[in-house]
Amino acid sequence: MKNVRLFYSKTGRLKFISHLDMTRFMSRIITRSKIPVWYTEGFNQHVYMNFALPLSLGFESVYEVVDFRLNDDGYSLDECLQRLKDAAVADMDFFAISEPIASVKDIGWAEYRIDFEENSENIKPFCGFLSRESIICEKTGKKGKVKQIDLIPKINGFTEDQSSVTLRLAAGTEDNLNPSLVMSVFFEQTNTEPFFYSVKRIAILDKNLKIFK
Amino acid sequence: MDNKAFEKLLLSVQKPGRYSGGEINSVIKDKEKVDVRFAFCFPDTYEIGMSHLGMKILYSQFNSREDIWCERVFAPWIDFEKVMRENNIPLFGLESRDSIKDFDFIGFTLQYEMSYTNMLNMLDLAGLPLRAEDRKDLSPLVVAGGPCVCNPEPIADFVDLFFLGEGEEVDLEVIDLYKEYKKKGAGKADFLRAAAKIEGVYVPSLYSDEYNDDGTLKSVTAAGTAPEKIKKRIIRDLDSVYYPDKFVVPFIEIVHDRAVEEIFRGCIRGCRFCQAGFIYRPVREKSVDTVNRQAKCLCENTGYDEVSLSSLSTSDYTGIEPLLNSLLEWTDSGHVSLALPSLRIDNFSDELLEKIKHIRKNGLTFAPEAGTQRLRDVINKNVTEEEIMSACKTAFEGGYTSVKLYFMMGLPTETDEDIKGIADLGQKIVDLYYSLPERPKGKSVSVSISVSTFVPKPFTPFEFEPQATADEIRRRQQYLKSCITTRKISLSYHDSSTSLLECVFALGDRRLCKVIEQAYRNGCKFDSWTECFDMEKWTAAFEKCGISPEFYANRRKDYGERLAWDHLDYSVSKDFLIRENKRAHNAETTPNCREKCMGCGAGCYGEGVCIEKR
To answer: What is the CATH architecture of A2-100?
Structure first.
């Protein structure tokens, strides 16, 4: 048995697929590709998969990572990648496959490009907002508990261009900041009328800011 | 509308995956390179429509032709419909996102009467007039098929052309004729007159109705060369007919999210309430080899991990044992599970249970349909209490602890004794469980009883029967509830006003078109969804049109009365239905097609069970 890590992009029509739907979808793609994939051995056997960092519905991404296992240690990874490409759909590109280097637990940061589209006049105020000493806001936890958090320690730099801002945000199992929370706090605390923006994940990084591989 | 603006709107609604398109195996073509664009419309949500086998078959078959591009269209849910109307987005095909108004065909599959208002809503969302007479051009042609089309009179004013029976051949014949007429620039009327000559095609505008003073139908007259009787089409050989090698695999979870392999059409049983058991005659089977090959191919091309065998009564398939053996050869090792719906109690064997147990263990569902033997004989559900008990015993000893039972209420000749019989049967099953030394240890039993309301349907021996009134059904439901004394039995039943409407539109005539249109104008849609159904709007529509629903639903008809569907020929003769109705009233059962031929009329095709050796 061999662990493998598959890298792909999820864009266009695929941004409407929730994470839960994505797991089912990926399992079908893998089955269709007829690679010698490893199944769990429990009562309800299924393709073993582990997604590095779930992506919210509505977001695009050019850097998605899923781990699975191959039964055949000697199976060519090039062959594997080609078969997966053939089994995939438009708007999903499998661009690399390798044996995992880092552990999923090492993920620390992710980069998101927020496209302001026709509301680019808000870029300057947004960057100003991000440059505050602290951004205290309320976050509702999974169990419905509301707690006060500061966003600034969870933001590790940003860059801007004419129509978008790219943010590096805390990511992973220990601490995770969703760009929609940053945007909604921005709207609320700067009295800005909410507008439409689109989000694309650009990269997943480890705790040392190296590309997660 | 550009894609970006469209996708922005999609993000504002629930389950955008319903409208996004782009699924595995969905078909994209160059619209400049096709001659015919077909919008295949299912008048309900994506999750329901995508589960429908007929749509999968015809979608793939049409698209297998280079000159046709078939796209899928579903009824947008309330939230997205609002967005569409506010932003002037016309109803579109999921594949191209083009407005279907400019397509050549808009085809509806009509599976249940309560979807009629959705069909009107979809025509309106497409920007088309609802009535066929108001759509003057050759295209788009609004066509429809499906089981409801065996009495299409209540929607005859909205549809240009109906397909009677199975569509694989007749649909393409009509499309080819259309291509010819489109090329020569012919008009709609010319085309429809020519199409009416194809067997299985019913063009309602070529027929006119007359009524007697008492409101009953007097006559239906065909104009010009249109046939007096329109005969349904069947596929003669299921081994050679087109069957898809792949399905579109949805992103979001749908109702039946699995590969489906059809094993036969029709049913040998002839349960007298069951429309499917009559209109799909004669029984024709696919061979074991074909089923096995097609099922395997489907799983490989879709990535589904479950395959379901589809038919009206799986265990009546003559090759069921060899079929299961050959399927199990690859399903097990391929991590595919096998689902066998529609098993009958009377041939539910130990071996069969052993095989399905081996695959997956969930609840078992049986359909005794009626609570007493007398009433089961009336409806010709040839199942005895002993068989029900023995099937439950087999199931319990095999480790099952829950059983689901389906019944109908309001069946012809039903009395309170029959209702009490439902509760008694449930109690006997509970008692049986506790009497078994080999029952699963330490577990309680659960018997779910689900009771639907009987709806008399065209082309069944009960087409002459009245439906019990909504008030009477409510009384019987309460009575049944009072008969159940243990918490091991759970009871569920359906709303009776929906059943009344189903009955009216199943048995009704052309005068109901205006009621459906009025109900739609009153805001009715998604009538099969309890959160959307509004009986008051329907009542208002009937009142405004001066039409009594009771006239259609609650009146017994003489054998001699002309019925709204008498000009359609579904191969079972009216004489046969009358004979069966008389036997029902004598509580006399009828043997199944394999035991004895009762001369229903389906033998005219000379196919399937009708020419098997008995």
So the answer is: 2-Layer Sandwich (3.30)
